[in-house]
Amino acid sequence: MSQKHTKSPCCQGKTIRFGQRRRQCSICKKTWRIRQKRKGRKAKRMNTDIVKRYLCKNGFNLDEHASRIGITVPALRKRIRKNLNLLLETEQWTEPPKNKDLVVVIDALLQQIFFGKDKKCYTVYLVLLRALDDNEAIILKPVIFPRYENKLDWERALNNIPKSARNRILALIGDGKPCYITIAKDNNWLLQRCHFHLLAELNRYASKKRKSKNRELISKIDKEVRIIITTTDKNKLQESLKKILLFTNNPNVPQRIKTRFLKGLLRNYEYYRTYLNYPELNLPITTNSCEALNSIIGNFLMRIRGINSPSAFRKLVQALMLLRKRVACKGSNHQPN
């Protein structure tokens, strides 16, 4: 149908030109624009600066900032939500280093979200990529799953690494989770376990404090453990392993330390010495870079006094990591004799 034969939308009558941009119905004389405008008040132009200020270490208080700019707190929250979505859509994640061998540092953070009296556990999976000759790691987009940490979800999180970068990964750095051994073997990666978590696990079952009845015993075990994970002398290593074996047969050592720490150390001590066996990889010996990011997330949630929405939790965690982009991740710098 030709444009001059179109009918009016109101009465299906003949359409008359009513100026350059309007038309008129010949029956009821109603006019309308040929290019319709969006009705209502024009939306305020969005800016991500307010979200960046809100997410920074010394972010503003909602009540104080709302009174300062003359709006209500709900209106300020709505403004932050809109700009948060804009930030996640426009800001780009840092791409992995190209044409370099990589190591991957991983850790998980468990967070409880309350729905009234009910609560549900969500786990944040953090993945960092670092070039062998670099002192900083890039932060990949974190993924969040509604359950406790497990091997299946870790595989799903690691599958988000770009294939070009995943093929260049040589080693995995993580804490003492048993599933990390399987993940490293499945991907043909070396595994370096965190020294800090190892020593913290020993102090979890017994204390070296002055009033502890096992103080002297734990100090002796701690000394041998440090030798096992740091010495380059094979004779010292074998002597310390023998002493650890004697501790497993010592009736004075608590059973929980024998079964949950000493026997596991004897089976897996080589995973704590990977940085010594492969000094050219310049592997970090702790997951402190991931722990620093966990602290950033925890401190922010403490400042806003928790959160009760999984979608908001996911967006805020991703925005915190997106603004950070990189984190310090130094290697051991071990030089063989």
What can you tell me about this protein's structure?
This protein has 337 residues and is α+β, with helices and mostly antiparallel strands. The chain folds into four domains: 3-33, no CATH class; 49-90; 99-194 and 285-337, Nucleotidyltransferase, domain 5 (2-Layer Sandwich); 195-279, no CATH class. It is 43% helix and 17% strand. It is built from 13 helices and ten strands. The protein has helices at 49-55, 62-69, 73-90, 151-158, 163-166, 179-186, 195-205, 215-230, 234-248, 255-268, 274-277, 288-303, 310-324, and strands at 15-17, 22-25, 31-33, 102-115, 118-131, 136-139, 143-145, 169-174, 190-193, 326-328. Strands 4, 5, 6, 7, 8, 9 and 10 form a seven-stranded mixed β-sheet that branches. A three-stranded antiparallel β-sheet has the order 1-2-3, with no helix packed on it. A hairpin with a 4-residue loop joins strand 5 (118-131) and strand 6 (136-139). Helix 3 (73-90) packs across helix 13, helix 7 (195-205) packs antiparallel against helix 8 and helix 9 (234-248) packs antiparallel against helix 10 (255-268). The longest helix is centred in the first third of the chain and has 18 residues, at 73-90. The radius of gyration is 30 Å and the shape is elongated. 23% of the residues are buried. The mean pLDDT is 88.
The 3D shape can be described as: elongated
pLDDT average, as an integer? 88
- What does the radius of gyration come to? 30 Å
| Helical stretch tally | 13
| CATH top-level class of the largest domain | Alpha Beta
Count structural domains: 4
Element order, helices and strands? Answer: EEEHHHEEEEHHEHEHHHHHHHE
The fraction of residues assigned to DSSP E strands is: 15-25%
